[in-house]
Design brief:
Layout lengths: L1 H18 L35 H22 L8 H11 L1 H17 L4 H17 L7 H16 L6 H15 L29 E2 L2 E2 L6 H8 L1
Antiparallel strand pairs: 1-2
Helix pairs in contact: 1-6, 2-3, 2-4, 2-6, 2-7, 3-6, 4-5, 6-7
Length: 228
């Protein structure tokens, strides 16, 4: 099993490198968003904890999280003509339709099982879906998010049917990492020295003439001339 997981990880990385166009790289040296695969219980990976979830339910949640992330990317990453997040997402919906539908059904049963009334379970499921989508907001890291999602969506095209959950276990932590604020990694960023800020002396009566503010009257040189 370890060997198959290792091969899948290597395949995901190779697919991302081979399928992502060079022009889709936004940096001379892109941030490293690599991370270990997950099982679904890691904090912050699935938008919210799922207490008492079985391995099958956690896998379903991972599938749904990756679907949501790629959906957000399909909508937000159309600014780059070489990014294939939109056509890839549409292809993913077709190619992995059965696994996506099955995962949603498993998630639905989880929320129905963990709530006393069907209405409460449906409400919890709807709220979970909203939290999942909103958790992939990429306001401060759009370039890195889109680049990462593009690579993973390309990998999904080459993922065999029934194995989307394996891709999710590998891809979700990478997408989560891409949501952090990153920048160019080739060159270190240097903060400019603090600029000297001189605030107007609004309370200084010498700066005012007939109700009008005259900065030259309260400038340092003007004060020196006045003292002379």
């Amino acid at each position: 099993m370890f060997g198959s997981r290792l091969m899948f990880s290597a395949g995901l990385g190779a697919a991302m490198l081979a399928a992502t166009p060079a022009s889709a790289q936004f940096y001379l040296k892109s941030p490293d968003v690599g991370a270990p695969r997950i099982i679904g219980t890691e904090p912050g990976m699935l938008a919210q904890p799922l207490p008492g979830a079985t391995p099958a339910e956690l896998r379903a949640a991972m599938v749904w999280n990756l679907r949501a992330a790629l959906n957000v990317a399909a909508l937000q990453c159309q600014f780059g003509p070489t990014l294939l997040t939109l056509p890839n997402y549409n292809a993913i919906l077709r190619d992995h339709k059965v696994e996506l539908n099955d995962s949603y059904a498993v998630l639905t049963k989880y929320f129905m099982r963990t709530h006393k009334a069907p209405k409460a379970g449906q409400t919890a499921l709807d709220q979970y879906g909203t939290r999942v989508y909103s958790s992939y907001s990429a306001v401060h890291a759009q370039l890195t998010f889109c680049q990462t999602a593009d690579g993973i969506s390309n990998a999904a095209i080459f993922t065999p049917r029934g194995k989307f959950g394996e891709l999710a276990a590998e891809g979700i932590p990478m997408i989560r990492n891409s949501l952090s604020r990153w920048g160019e990694q080739q060159f270190s960023m240097r903060m400019p020295p603090e600029a000297q800020v001189i605030y107007p002396e609004f309370v200084n009566e010498d700066c005012w003439v007939k109700g009008g503010y005259v900065p030259s009257r309260c400038a340092p040189d003007a004060k020196k001339r006045k003292r002379r």
